[in-house]
Amino acid sequence: MSRLQDKLAETSRLKHGIDNTIQDLKQSYREGEAGDRTMEFLLSQRSLKGYYGTLRQLGRIDDSYDIAAGVASNAWGFHVVEDRATATAALQLLKEHNIGRATMMVISEIEKEMGARSKNAFTAPTPKCKRLFDLIQPTNEKFKSVFYQAVRDTLVVDTLVAAREVAFGGVDKKRYRVVTLKGELVEPSGSITGGGATPERRQAQGGPLPARQAGHQGGNAAAAGGAGAGGRGRAGTAAAPTPNVGAGE
């Protein structure tokens, strides 16, 4: 009887996990669809100059880092624009046509803050890890600072054990933000995010960067638009925001 109860309990746990995964997939699909509709609309506006699409469409990364990239940032569904004027115009169009909400990453503003930092030499604290930013190949060099804004100096390792070792002070005693290939995230503050089912591959969920192409929200983003929810990223930790450009409801 006890063995049967154990099996029933295990079956119930498995069902609960599957149900949660299904709900996550449905939500991700809805978010991805909304973001794609917003991007397609903005790209179709010939009067809108300096709009490039969502961040996930502007870079590539090897499949093996796909899950880690998706967990490391929630900026993949954000929309990349050249300057504040373009951001304002794009948000106004979304509002006028009631297309949806969106967050804009403004290259000219991000470049002022992150341009030099994205070019600084970086040495990983141990051979066990790689910097996620260095693994992303932008489709154009002008997007490098935007990708750096999204992931900063987040490191990637194979296992959670290695992530804890690196994050909480290795040889140099410095703390790092570290994500594993399975999507476990260790913050310098000491928090660890993980457990449950392994996050689905981001391209299957409409997450960062297309399949076989590759990924922390940054500031210098403008968020607004009409009703709905467009261009929203998945899991990640947001950096402290800097001044935004926005349009009202």
TrEMBL record:
InterPro entries: SMC_hinge, SMC_hinge_sf. One of its GO terms (biological process) is mitotic chromosome condensation. One of its GO terms (molecular function) is ATP binding. GO terms for cellular component: condensin complex. Residues 49-167 form the SMC hinge domain. Residues 211-224 have a biased composition (Low complexity). Keywords: ATP-binding, Nucleotide-binding, Nucleus. Residues 225-234 have a biased composition (Gly residues). SMART domains: SMC_hinge. Residues 188-249 are annotated as: Disordered. PANTHER family: STRUCTURAL MAINTENANCE OF CHROMOSOMES PROTEIN, STRUCTURAL MAINTENANCE OF CHROMOSOMES SMC FAMILY MEMBER. This is SMC proteins Flexible Hinge Domain, putative. The lineage of its organism: Eukaryota, Discoba, Euglenozoa, Kinetoplastea, Metakinetoplastina.
